[in-house]
Design goal:
3 domains, three-stranded antiparallel beta sheet, mainly alpha, DNA integration, DNA polymerase, domain 1, 15 helices, 8 strands, Phage_Integrase
């Protein structure tokens, strides 16, 4: 609410002034006011007041009344509400990405000094060096949009950037090949049987023959298996919080909550591993039947999730096997399912894909590989 009043200047002449209440500062929590003086008559003061009120409603507070924050300051405010909308593990991951890639570039800058050319330069830099650069672009845009909502800036400088697009390079083709064909999987499993522990053999048998995610695998308990019906229920995954501690949480998507069938040989191996685990716990004085223990464990962290990548890298190199990452066994399972005649819907349900596009991407890759052998199959059939 504004008040216009007459006052006497130092030279004895009369003039008009007004004081406009601007509300509570959302940053400091203190009331804000602005005062304008020196108007010759009440009409002049009213005109100036109306213009100021219109300007504030359209553009926010005048610069003189605003505390222009740094990017770091607005980020801290934004993150407090953002983390309530995502899982704890995702908040941990995003904070790490922001601290590593965004704040070193933007953190100390005043928000009104961040320009579109500056943002474009950072986006171009991320594109050249970071695989998931789209995530950094999206997060930076969200933070600056929050600054706009908070009336710190009039426009979001990220709105007009051009996002670079990757070409289908050799690197991306190698990345697509992160899976085994039937013969490669057979050779890998045989090497595990000959040269590794029973636990590792069972772990990769489960990954390759069920297609579950490594976080889902690490969270498995014996109660998740129904040995009489030959099924496995997926209801949780393991994640890491900001303090670096592992904890259980619901799976990636609602479609990830699923029950799938498991083949007899995998179930037999699991039973064999369960008996070995019981003996191990018995030696330690623990009755595994009285506790709902994890199916797989690691001596140091209690979870195998963090050790699988390192094991695979060493094992495949030592026994001259094609390199593969833990997630590659999920792709392997999907690819071999398609080759065995499974439908797209069956694969989607089994892998817990929320979006059929994810399943289709794998299907397209598999059929592309098959197309390359079409001419050879035809010539072999004709045989002349």
């Amino acid at each position: 609410m504004a008040t216009i009043r007459k006052y006497t200047k130092k030279d004895g002449t009369k003039a008009y002034m007004f004081q406009l209440y601007l509300g509570i500062d959302p940053i400091t929590g203190k009331p804000r006011k602005t005062t304008r003086r020196g108007f010759r008559n009440i009409a002049e003061a009213k005109t100036a007041l109306s213009r100021l009120e219109l300007e504030i409603s359209e553009r926010g507070l005048p610069t003189s009344q605003r505390k222009i924050m740094t990017f770091q300051e607005i980020y801290e405010l934004w993150f407090e509400q953002y983390k309530t909308t995502i899982k704890e593990s995702s908040a941990f991951s995003q904070r790490a990405n922001i601290n590593r890639h965004i704040l070193p570039k933007f953190g100390t800058l005043k928000l009104d000094k961040i320009t579109t050319p500056f943002c474009q330069a950072q986006v171009n830099s991320w594109f050249k060096t970071i695989k998931n650069y789209h995530n950094l672009v999206g997060i930076t845009r969200q933070i600056l949009e929050y600054a706009k909502v908070m009336k710190q800036i009039a426009n979001n400088p990220m709105d007009n950037i051009i996002i670079p697009k990757r070409k289908n390079t050799l690197d991306s083709k190698r990345e697509q090949a992160n899976f085994y064909d039937k013969q490669q999987l057979k050779e890998f499993m045989q090497a595990l049987q000959d040269h590794s522990s029973l636990q590792m053999l069972v772990i990769f048998r489960v990954l390759a023959f069920t297609g579950i995610r490594k976080g889902e695998l690490a969270a498995l308990k014996w109660s998740d298996f129904d040995f009489s019906s030959g099924t496995l229920s997926i209801s949780r995954t393991i994640a890491k919080n900001e303090k670096g501690k592992y904890y259980f949480q619901t799976p990636k998507t609602k479609n990830s909550l699923r029950t799938i069938s498991v083949d007899k040989e995998t179930m037999n191996l699991l039973q064999k591993w369960r008996n070995e685990q019981r003996k191990e716990y018995f030696r330690k004085g623990v009755n595994i039947d009285a506790t709902d223990e994890l199916v797989f464990h690691n001596r140091d962290s209690g979870t195998v999730q963090s050790t699988l990548g390192g094991f695979l890298k060493r094992f495949t190199a030592r026994y001259d096997l094609p390199p593969i990452k833990p997630h590659g066994f999920r792709h392997t399972h999907a690819s071999l399912l398609f080759e065995s005649g499974a439908t797209i819907k069956e694969v989607q349900d089994r892998l817990g894909h929320e979006n059929v596009k994810t399943t289709m991407d794998i299907y397209t890759h598999v059929t592309k590989t098959a197309r390359e052998k079409t001419a050879e199959k035809f010539a072999k059939y004709i045989d002349f």
